[in-house]
Design a protein that fits this description.
Length: 308
């Protein structure tokens, strides 16, 4: 098959358009730039922390953010969390360090070991015995550590590698669990820039399919391990991901349809749930949260962690 725009061999098809490697990369980068512009994800006076684990999504994110911010002279750096997942995170962080040295990008790594005195590997069995899956425990601490580190390093935005698949999965998961108010917190921009102590999260890959991100990382020849975290198979998300992938293969455009429908009703959801959980500060750590004690401090208590 031939690229629709030139004589080169096509590597990707999107409805009736065929893309060669070069035109696919242009399509990918232009779509990311359009997302950044349409939702005003970055401003000229921003300093951007790019959440990067060394996986394909985060390297595709880091690379496209680098291209964009270089053009507009916006400072950025990579920010990683080492959860302590033996045989997985150590190698992905090696890939991140290699990538950053290739492109002369500053990076910072915060670890569970340093911040909560243990690793995910050490606490995941206890979490499972208390009905908390590894991804639940990991997600709560990861979000907290990323926000704290981004804030301490002076970032005004935290860019994350969430793609269209992730968003469609989250929407379906929240809906299946009856957590519609959690959907109000999704979208390309999360949280208010005015919330003290909270670094606003933005998602430049919001409209990119996971398979497009994988292809981009592959074409760009990023040194990246395409293996998944060993804990993902235990998660609710993995089941929802499989359902959505099956639907997408029989009805292409399903994921796009879910996310675009959601964006139409997002303003209504925000309005409905705006005052449901008033913003406050954790009585323990003083991080912004929606109750008296933040999720990370509650999880520390549940797992009986001894945190400095
Ligand atoms: Fe953490 Fe789950 Fe992601 Fe693994 S898959 S890094 S356990 S959130």
């Amino acid at each position: 098959m031939q690229c629709t725009k030139c004589d080169n061999h096509a590597v990707y098809r999107l409805s009736d358009q065929l893309y060669c490697k070069d035109h696919f990369c242009r399509y990918f980068e232009n779509k990311v730039y359009k997302t950044i512009k349409k939702f005003s994800l970055f401003r000229p006076d921003d300093k951007i922390a790019v959440a990067s684990s060394g996986g394909k999504d985060s390297l595709a994110l880091l690379y496209t953010v680098m291209l964009y911010t270089n053009k507009y002279n916006i400072p950025f750096f990579a920010l990683a969390v080492d959860e302590g997942i033996a045989g997985y995170r150590d190698s992905s962080l090696d890939d991140l360090k290699f990538f950053c040295s290739q492109f002369d990008i500053k990076y910072h790594i915060v670890s569970f070991q340093d911040k909560i005195n243990t690793t995910l590997d050490n606490i995941k069995d206890k979490g499972i015995s208390l009905n908390k899956k590894p991804c639940t425990v990991c997600g709560i601490f990861r979000r907290t550590l990323l926000n704290r580190a981004a804030r301490e390093l002076g970032a005004t935005k935290l860019a994350t590698g969430h793609n269209l698949d992730d968003e469609a999965q989250s929407l379906l998961m929240n809906t299946m669990k009856g957590n519609m108010s959690h959907n109000a917190a999704l979208g390309p921009v999360t949280g208010l820039s005015s919330t003290k102590g909270f670094v606003q999260r933005v998602k430049p890959l919001y409209f990119m399919l996971e398979k497009e991100t994988r292809l981009y990382a592959f074409i760009k020849n990023f040194k990246v391990d395409f293996n998944e975290c060993p804990n993902i198979s235990l998660s609710f998300r993995a089941g929802v991901r499989d359902i959505l992938n099956n639907m997408e293969s029989t009805s292409p455009g399903t994921k796009n349809g879910i996310v675009n429908s959601f964006l139409e009703i997002l303003p209504l959801l925000k309005e409905k749930y705006r005052n449901e959980k008033p913003f406050s500060f954790c009585e323990r750590c003083n991080d912004p949260c929606s109750g008296k004690i933040c999720n990370a401090c509650q999880m520390e208590d549940l797992l009986c962690l001894k945190v400095n």
